[in-house]
């Protein structure tokens, strides 16, 4: 069964039924459900936790969604650093490695597709990464 890494924006869509993107995120996951395993990584977990008061609430969300948490491979951490270096050479303004680089590198190294609404950095710095996105 193929794996799909679920980006933070999609998880936050699913956590709020009133979100503008809830319908797209829920429908897309439903369509992919039979052939795929959905995963998140520690970066996504951490980003999602910001919207909750307790760890139990975060755990309940991921249990309800049925998403597995996979560790980020060392190769992905290395690739994230290289993507950040490329970003800095293009005069990017952030001084720390951005979460998107960890997420994109993890999906790339693991051979996962990435379900996201944020095309920008993923398509620029991980051009071979398979993206599942809403139609523009």
CATH superfamily: 5'-nuclease
Spans with pLDDT under 50 lasting ≥5 residues? none
Please identify the structural class as seen in this structure. alpha/beta
Tell me the number of helical segments per DSSP (H or I, 4 or more residues long). Answer: 7
How would a crystallographer describe the biggest sheet? Answer: 5 strands, parallel
Any idea what the radius of gyration is? Answer: 15 Å
CATH classification class: Alpha Beta
Instruction: Name the beta content range.
Output: 5-15%
Task: Give a topology summary.
Blueprint: E1 2-6, H1 8-15, H2 22-32, E2 36-40, H3 42-49, H4 55-65, E3 68-69, H5 74-89, H6 99-110, E4 113-115, H7 119-125, E5 131-132
Parallel strand pairs: 1-2, 1-4, 2-3, 4-5
Helix pairs in contact: 1-2, 1-3, 5-6
What does this protein structure show overall?
The longest helix has 16 residues, at 74-89. The mean pLDDT is 94. By secondary structure, this protein is an alpha/beta fold. The radius of gyration is 15 Å and the shape is globular. The relative contact order is 0.19. Strand 4, helix 7 and strand 5 (131-132) form a beta-alpha-beta unit. The protein has seven helices and five strands; from the N terminus they run βααβααβααβαβ. It has helices spanning 8-15, 22-32, 42-49, 55-65, 74-89, 99-110, 119-125, and strands spanning 2-6, 36-40, 68-69, 113-115, 131-132. The chain has a single domain, classed as 5'-nuclease (Rossmann fold, 3-Layer(aba) Sandwich). It has a five-stranded parallel sheet.
